[in-house]
Amino acid sequence: MTITVPNVNGGLVLTASVDYRTHTGYGVVRGTGRDTSSDGLIRWTATTVLVHPMADPPAVVPASPPADGWHSRPLLTSGMTLDSALAIVLDLGSDRPDNAALLPQNGATWVGQEQVRGHRTDVMSGPRAQADSGAGTEADASTSTSTSTSQTVRYWIGSDGTMYRVEAAVASAPEPVVFDFDTQAYVPIQPLPGATPTP
Length: 199
Prior knowledge:
The longest helix is centred in the middle third of the chain and has 11 residues, at 81-91. The protein is mainly β. The chain has one helix spanning 81-91; strands spanning 2-5, 12-19, 24-31, 40-44, 48-53, 71-74, 109-116, 119-125, 153-158, 163-168, 177-180. A hairpin with a 2-residue loop joins strand 7 and strand 8 (119-125). The chain contains one helix and eleven strands, in the order E-E-E-E-E-E-H-E-E-E-E-E.
């Protein structure tokens, strides 16, 4: 998948894979415009982000991750657009579907049809955020539990149910974050040598 993360300095583009069985992401991140300080490899879970800085990152992520050179930090739940995007990606693999009968009552609606990489898709907006819920994170924008009226989400879905694109607005970004999904066979993300996976 490709994740486009905007910011005032240009933005970031991640070419990544997400293993929804282990809730782990792994990819290459590149800055655009003036924002190249984050270039390198990235791995993440719902709680942790690991980065491997590289001056000239590869076009695709190595199948076997480097054994060293990783820097770990907690995944931030608010105030950082990249982390919000990483959390949203993992939330999109939730195994707890929304109640379809209640979605229209919360503002979910069909928007229209568009082509995405040659695929005809239906574009749907997600449920409106509830301004009075009083809790949550920016990453909640990916689901019906959004907590800010400024946060919206749209889905591009094929006739067979394949999700090709998601666009989510988060409070810390000047423009929506865009998630473009490819359709590939499942390949597990290899663990880091000597590291214990974080759930």
